[in-house]
Amino acid sequence: MKVKSILVSQPAPTIENSPYITLKKKRKVKIDFIPFIHVEGMTAREVRHQKIDLSKFSAIILTSRNAIDHFFRVAEEMRFPIPNALKYFCLSEAVAFYLQKYVVYRKRKIYVGGRTFEDLSVQIEKYNEESYLVPSADVLSPAIPKKLDELGVRWTQGTFYKTKISDLSSLKDVYYDILVFFSPSGIESLLSNFPDFKQNDTRIAVFGKTTVKAAEKAGLRIDILAPTPKVPSMSKALDMYIEKANKK
After folding, report:
1. Which of the residues 51, 101, 162, 244 has an alpha carbon 20 to 30 A from that of 43?
2. pLDDT, tens digit, for every residue of 61-114?
3. Which helix or strand (DSSP H or E) is residue 117 part of?
4. Burial zone of 160 (CB within 10 Å; 0-12 exposed, 13-18 middle, 19+ buried)
5. Coil, strand or helix: which one is 213?
6. Cβ proximity of 155 and 52 under 8 Å
7. Residue 34 · residue 171 · CB < 8 Å
8. Residue 38: what are its φ and ψ, rounded to 5°?
């Protein structure tokens, strides 16, 4: 079946050269962006109750833009001056680039991974004497604590924000050819908002191993998958799928 419409379960991109805008023009398809989940920050008091003392950490592991935003927000609420010597370990170049919103890049010690936490762990292993803080959501990928324990470094996870399911009632009678998911929480939101959801001809696109597992557990048929060695991004995976589907 041909693809005419796509729903991406994330906020709309803020950059003009987004690959999704390119895809929309190239394939002449409708692409809507509606967040299936949203983030609510923890208060400084709630973080303190987790026995998190920011002054005790010499390094911070940042896995997402949300982690960056809420770490600096909580630090400000606590009136904690970020030390210049603090080391920043960023999951990807995109995360490291976003860090510039808060720090002067050239004056900070910033270490960047590749695409996975396994890539970043190579950098972390070089600095095994540091005391690491992992500011995260209430749900942390199990691969992260597992790898940090394997490395034998001192680390503490702090819940700085929570992921909440969004109200999607406005989509009740709206149909899309492809639904795109980037997290297990997105799958959970779909089923929570639409408990009687039937996939039928709707194609499901998923990004990442944990999202794949969540989709499979929910009994969904996965039609589009990323990343793979040959297809590193979701936009590329969608482009390749649409090229084949719309030729028929």
Report:
1. 101
2. 999 999 999 999 999 999 999 999 999 999 988 899 999 999 887 778 999 988
3. helix 117-126
4. buried
5. helix
6. no
7. yes
8. -140, 165
The alpha carbon of residue 49 and the mean position of all alpha carbons in its chain are separated, in whole angstroms, by 26
Q: Mark residue 56 as left, alpha or beta (left: phi above 0; alpha: psi -120 to 50; beta: remaining).
A: alpha
Supply 122's token pair: 């190579």
- Distances from the Cα of 196 to the Cα of 64, 190, 215, angstroms: 32, 10, 15
Please report, for residues 63, 95, 145, 183, the alpha-carbon distance to residue 135 in angstroms, rounded to integers and kept in the order given: 8, 14, 12, 18
Domain annotation for the chain: domains and CATH numbers: 5-36+168-245 (3.40.50.10090), 40-163 (3.40.50.10090)
pLDDT (tens digit per residue) in 135-167: 999 988 888 999 999 999 999 999 999 999 999
- For residue 170, give the amino acid letter: S
Q: Which secondary structure element, helix H or strand E, spans residue 88, and what is its range?
A: strand 87-90
